[in-house]
# Entry
Amino acid sequence: MRIIVIIMISLVSALSPALARQDNAATDSLNVTRWLAEARLMPSSTCYPVFFARKFLGVPYVAHTLEVNDKERLVINTRQLDCTTLVENVVALTLCVRNNKYSYQDYLHYIYIIRYRNGKNEGYTSRLHYFSDWIEDNAQKGLVAERQSPNPPFSAVQTVRVGYMSAHQDKYKALRQHPEYIKDIKAMERRLSGKTYRYIPKSVVRKGTSLRKAVKNGDIIAITCNKKGLDIAHLGIAVWKKDGLHLLNASQIHKKVVLEPMLLGDYLHKHPSHTGIRIVEIL
# Structure
């Protein structure tokens, strides 16, 4: 088995020159190949986004796991997650199965395509940092689709006003080290700002009326917010239980990936800056 893993990693390195060197690459490749092998045996009725999301339950929450290289490289880390990398992993694994792709190289391909604008790593500023940008770009690739109807429950409109990254350069390692990136970041923020998207306000989420038709098991939930300069505060995967809609997420509060015990409506209510949810389907 050890020889096979070494050969696999060597092949991945040869096929993916933009892949960052990882001390735990063997663990990541074994995780991914095992999960894909399990998924291959599941019935066709399986909700694969939830199936894969549950594989990450208990994985530690760690922020900034992509900020480990001076030069932008494809970082793979299934052992430590934030809310965005959890969603990216779930999307990549789901796309593998839905397209009958079951190798680690296939998974790497989808992570790469998902993470970068137009599916090309052209440096730090080509990474899809704001989730509205992530949704739009991956929708254009035909990988996801944002659901914005019917109304109700999609009764509110978000007008995107992003600028957090350029206003808080000190919070981003790459921007501290490369102030020349700010020009491209600001251009991207200007392009996104002003765009509008329909969402479900949190008051409607808490009531729970008409949600089951609007939010499907395994959808990506993007939580909208009123924080200055941000479009989305948090992400997770929709999980329906008998009592209602829950969020499976990489939680900074719980310090790990969890299926929130409280209903999503109650979760949103506990966070004053949260305004509602946008819904994205993995195609």
Observations:
- The chain is about 40% helix and 20% strand.
- The chain has a mean pLDDT of 92.
- The first helix runs from residue 2 to 15.
- The two ends are 34 Å apart (CA to CA).
